[in-house]
Amino acid sequence: MTSLTSSPLAASGKLDLALLIFRIASAIVFLYHGSAIFFGAFGGPGIHGFAGFMHSPVIVSFLVGLAQFAGGLALLTGAFVRIGALCIMIVMAGAIFLVHLPHGFSLANNGMEYALTQFLLALGLFITGGGSYSLAGVLPPALRKL
User: Fold this and answer.
1) Alpha carbon distances (Å) from 63 to 8, 27, 97, 124
2) Which of 12, 34, 86, 142 has the fewest Cβ atoms nearer than 10 Å?
3) 137: which DSSP letter?
4) Is pTM, for the whole model, over 0.85?
5) What pLDDT does residue 1 have?
6) 91 pLDDT exceeds 80?
7) Within a 10 A sphere around the Cβ of 76, how many other Cβ atoms?
8) Residues 81, 136: contact at Cβ < 8 Å?
9) Cα distance between residue 29 and residue 90, in whole Å
């Protein structure tokens, strides 16, 4: 059995390119939604509007918006990708259990399909890290694996 880092996929640099594509795909979503919650951008509700919609304290809405925006930024840049992925996994677990699960799986019924997909993308990035095409290399060595 070969390891992921010694496989032909990794040796050719295709793995790093695939990780970059996955990071960008997920980052776009979370930068958008995080900006809508955190800043009220794109016609979003802002922190107070999101708190009202979710019937949650403002601090919870602040943390959700921050986790989505900062997590998306971490995924996009590849710096602190594991911390960003963890933030996104927590938010998506909350979205699945608090919002989407009662509606089943199908996205057409507001089910958990998309939230689960984003959770699994973040989990994969948490496991692998951001790959070579990231800004993690400019961080001090002790912080590069975060």
Assistant:
1) 41, 17, 17, 23
2) 142
3) G
4) yes
5) 46
6) yes
7) 21
8) yes
9) 15
